[in-house]
Amino acid sequence: MYSEKVTIENKTGLHSRPAVMFVQTVGKFKSNVTITKGDKVAVAKSILNILSMAITCGTEITISAEGPDEELAVKELVKLVKSKFGEE
Length: 88
Known about the structure:
Layout: E1 2-7, H1 16-26, E2 32-37, E3 40-43, H2 47-52, E4 60-66, H3 70-82
């Protein structure tokens, strides 16, 4: 398993449009990806799971992956988060 922590920096947080981008990016990889916020864990292939976490600006999350391309998956998702999902 590979994981990294990252802080959500876009003003609107992980709302529907960024969540769709996140799920689409997860879909490119074979590994199982999860997002952890505090004690909540969500399967990152489900937009409903991601939205139910109510991840707002300034929230630190942990992106974890387990599988054949786990490190690449996490690094790509962290890059997406750091880009503020192209919103700013």
